[in-house]
Amino acid sequence: MRPAWAEIDLDAIAANVSTIAERLSPGAKYLAVVKANAYGHGDVEVARAALGAGASWLGVILPAEGKRLRDAGIDARILLLHEPDPTDADAVVALGLTPSVFTEQGITALDEAAERANKHIAVHLKIDTGLNRLGVPLGRLDQAITALAKASRLEIEGVFSHFAFADQPDHPFIGTQVERFSDGLERLRAHGIQPPLRHLANSAATLTRPETHYDLVRVGIAMYGLAPGAALKDAMPYRPAMSIKARAAMVKRVTKGEGISYGLRYVLERDATIVSVPLGYGDGWVRAAGGKATALIGGRKHPTVGTVCMDSFMVDVGDTPADVGDEVVLLGRQGDEVIAAEDVADTLGTINYEVVTQVSSRMPRVYSGRAMMEGDGRQG
């Protein structure tokens, strides 16, 4: 195994799920969003932990993501949050995934696939209430209903939409989207369609807008112990699940006036100890972090310096003692110091979602907690 890894605390995942589940409106079910390899945390392991803590649904984007979960023996309901490509329709039916639909082409492809398999399948109709990304515009809702009425093998189990302001729980457009969603539901009822599952709430709305819980909530970022936005940093007692760590690969004393890494952009103004850390942008520690982010060594924060390489980057620890094999923490706790995903995000001008999701598959994940994998808990 490499001397660089991401530690995933599955007990933290379970605790976050339980904390959020306790806040749900009566009757509302919990969908755990595990798309994009569970935001970089590991989809199979996180799915098991979330289901064990009270989630009843899983959410992904791609049929291939659903297949990974099925191949791991997970038989829970899995919602494809995007409509699958028509070429994937047969696989979606065979895997027992629940697809979203929002185009006539997608509806027809799924109906024909279900016919070939001699099955009836449940689908969730996505309505666009103002995000203007994916979903049936309200102005075309009647056409979608007509297409679904012709699809004899499809059963409308759910209807949903998605908020445009995930990080601003008091934004007035949230109310606009709720009204548009209600209008869409009313128009469906006028056609005799009353799906048993209505869902609109993401993590932010789940924590702050109980009137949007309906029958199902879709929780992503908060489940991983990260706030959906700055305004929600105190919305619950988050337990971050991911830490990123490494072992110092080389420690050397470098003299004043010498430069560090490609381009020698960082020039020492005094003699200092430079620690080389064996991970880089090939692992998701982006090049933009060079000279901006910090790292924990010996229980203290130190600046990362020079250009981040594909497989390594450097830390200037000054005169602090360090040695090969010392633990380096890029995300997480060491002693009394903590580097949070929000700290890294602020440094890089991005969001905490991207910080954890960009950790590449090349980085081993080391799991701990109730849903720990068999063996030593590692996955390459």
CATH architecture of the largest domain: Alpha-Beta Barrel
Number of extended strands: 22
Name the CATH superfamily classification of the largest domain.
Alanine racemase
Measure the end-to-end span: 8 Å
Strand residues, percent: 25-35%
Class per helix and strand makeup: alpha/beta
Q: Rg to the nearest angstrom?
A: 24 Å
**Helix content range:** 25-40%
The unreliable regions are: 373-380
What's the rounded overall pLDDT mean?
Answer: 95
Number of domains: 2
Outline: elongated
Sheet of most strands: 11 strands, mixed
**What's the number of helices?**
11
Instruction: Write down the CATH topology of the largest domain.
Output: TIM Barrel
Quickly name the level 1 CATH class of the largest domain.
Answer: Alpha Beta
Description:
- This protein is 28% helix and 27% strand.
- By secondary structure, the chain is an alpha/beta fold.
- Strand 19 and strand 20 form a beta hairpin.
- Helix 5 crosses helix 6 (104-117).
- The longest helix has 19 residues, at 172-190.
In short:
With 380 residues, the chain is of the alpha/beta class. Helices cover 28% and strands 27% of the residues.
List the helices and strands and how they pair.
Blueprint: E1 4-9, H1 10-21, E2 29-33, H2 35-39, H3 43-52, E3 57-60, H4 63-71, E4 77-80, H5 89-95, E5 98-101, H6 104-117, E6 121-128, E7 136-137, H7 141-150, E8 154-160, H8 172-190, E9 197-199, H9 203-208, E10 216-219, E11 242-247, E12 250-254, E13 259-260, E14 266-267, E15 272-277, E16 294-297, E17 300-305, E18 313-318, E19 327-334, E20 337-339, H10 341-348, H11 352-357, E21 365-368, E22 378-379
Parallel strand pairs: 1-21, 2-3, 2-10, 3-4, 4-5, 5-6, 6-7, 6-8, 8-9
Antiparallel strand pairs: 1-11, 11-19, 12-15, 13-14, 15-18, 16-17, 16-19, 17-18, 19-20, 21-22
Helix pairs in contact: 1-3, 5-6
